[in-house]
Give the backbone structure.
Amino acid sequence: MTMFDAQETSSERPAVCPVHAQPDHPKVKPARVGVLVANLGTPDDTGYWSMRRYLNEFLSDKRVVDISNWIWQPLLQLVILTKRPFSSGAAYKSIWNEEDNESPLLTITKKQTAAIRAKMVAEYGDDVRVDFCMRYGNPSTKSKVQEMVDAGCTKILFFPLYPHYAGATSATANDQFFRALIAQKQQPIARIVEPYFEDTAYIDALAKSIEAAYAKADKKPDVLVCSYHGMPIRYLMEGDRYHCECQKTTRLLKERLGWADTEIRTTFQSVFGREEWLKPYTVEEVARMASEEGIKNIAICAPAFSADCIETLEEINEEIKESFEEAGGEHFTYIPCLNDDPAHINALSGIINRNLRGWLR
């Protein structure tokens, strides 16, 4: 058992027969409230079959790719999944946490969960159980919901760690949570935490991380690029509010920093397929800034990601950086995600506390 596991199991309370129940009544655990935070997911390792399983689960999600199965699945199974596991595995290898043999996203999510748990225990004692799950890969949402029910959680607060709503992130995480509830004979009461893209503490935590990075920089960046994960423009036209929420985060961040419009920009990364996605594309925009505007010194952050992962550590800090430098850029500063920074943990814990109102003391 790891230290992380021990923190969760050390406070388990024994099951007892309910008061006034017959002697043969099944024993039940004392009622608790569960807080289940969720992130995107991670392969178990960088090998071909592990990557293939992970990518198959991810790319078979209709919230991610909403093409008809009779068109998409043959292409996915016979073409994409025969090649992409190799390239994706190589990308993961370049950032893999070799010491713990896990992806950085898993490492960081564990730290975030432990920090949030410490705050919840200080506030509510043993009445709250805090854990995490992944939408794709392990630990699965279904397994963690089952563990919470087994531990006596009669209420569960589900918290997708995405500041901005998107069908391919928040909604699919919620879908999986609801599927897990279907399997329960006695379903716990459930609440979903809404997106927190405009939360004051979240914006302040972002601003402080940027101020700290600028203070350490040898030369102050000319522009801060806020790079958000992309999605097809069609999704926006169909009602997905992700684009609007990203734009508002950038505006609130600019106002909190006291900057001019020229000092901060919004872009979108991780384009997939031939469909037109939200623009400007980060990889193209940073190159254009260097070649056409003569901007040689930029910083880039990723406000839509609660933890550093393949899209930030490999795509931004390698692919996008290379695009900028090849176009003439000279100074590229990547500002890490908020991860388990105390200001971020305080923001997340505050959001959790607000959503627990009425459930606890």
User: Anything to note?
Assistant: The longest helix spans residues 69-93. Residues 124 and 360 are 8 Å apart (CA to CA). The chain has twelve helices and eight strands. The first strand starts at residue 32 and ends at 42.
